[in-house]
């Protein structure tokens, strides 16, 4: 009697895991040549492809650098943070203008048109609904609560004083208390912006072609680790569940107890298909 055929199990897949926007991704480690923090070194060229940032030097040649977030159709964490920085600048200026409007109303006796409710101004509405997983930023934002409430409460108190015929007292208080509270708020806005700026650290992944030469590079938000997924964690493209702009890049999904990872498999023929 012949021996039964030996059943060989599928080997695990070894991948580099990383983050793009709020998505976890994976790439076969055999395609990874090196990782480096990106320092805006891309060389601009007159002709670009979708998602292309520019050209970077790699092992004696220039290869295209692509923003993987743009290719996947998501907002990178860096872009998200830059939007938040712009919002912080605008909301800080709102409160400078708010204090100027309060001063003008107290001087002129005109109606104060802005809100004295800390939950009703643009910053207050954003502040009450915003959540972040960044613990340091979260602690900084918590510090806004007291001075933000205080500056709006000051407005209510000074307007009441002026209405009761004590305009000079209201203006004196504004010159001292108003500027002091505004300075505290502006310092916090500066700390929050600095925290966001320092946390924008994109990483370049240099991707190899079939011969192990540099083919192109991806710009990603954060590197996790090299790890293995067993065969039962491997799922086909249908597991992604949505149609992404870079569907041709999708090999499938790697799924285990730590979450879902988009398993990317860029074409070996050349970067032009990206």
Q: Keyphrases for this structure?
A:
disordered C terminus; six-stranded mixed β-sheet; 11 strands; 274 residues; Four Helix Bundle (Hemerythrin (Met), subunit A); five-stranded mixed β-sheet; 2 domains; alpha+beta; OB fold (Dihydrolipoamide Acetyltransferase, E2P); elongated
Structure in words:
It is a single chain. By secondary structure, the chain is an alpha+beta fold. It folds into 2 domains: 136 residues, CheA-289, Domain 4 (OB fold (Dihydrolipoamide Acetyltransferase, E2P)); 122 residues, Aspartate receptor, ligand-binding domain (Four Helix Bundle (Hemerythrin (Met), subunit A)), CATH 1.20.120.30. It is 38% helix and 26% strand. The strands form 2 sheets. A 6-stranded mixed sheet has the order 8-1-2-11-10-9, with no helix packed on it. A 5-stranded mixed sheet has the order 3-6-7-5-4. A hairpin with a 2-residue loop joins strand 4 and strand 5. Helix 2 runs parallel beside helix 5 and helix 2 runs antiparallel to helix 6. The protein is elongated. The C terminus is likely disordered.
The structural domain count equals 2
Largest β-sheet summary: 6 strands, mixed
The average pLDDT score comes to 90
For this structure, the CATH topology of the largest domain is OB fold (Dihydrolipoamide Acetyltransferase, E2P)
| H and E order | EEEEEHHHHHHEEEEEE
- CATH superfamily membership of the largest domain: CheA-289, Domain 4
SS field, number of helical segments = 6
Radius of gyration: 27 Å
Supply the helix-strand structural class.
alpha+beta
Instruction: Tell me the number of strands.
Output: 11
Q: Give the distance, in angstroms, between the N- and C-terminal Cα atoms.
A: 54 Å
CATH architecture of the largest domain: Beta Barrel
* Proportion of residues in extended strands: 25-35%
Shape: elongated
The share of residues in helices is 25-40%
Taking pLDDT < 50 over at least 5 consecutive residues as the criterion, the unreliable ranges are 270-274
CATH class of the largest domain: Mainly Beta
Across the major sheet, the strand order is: 8-1-2-11-10-9
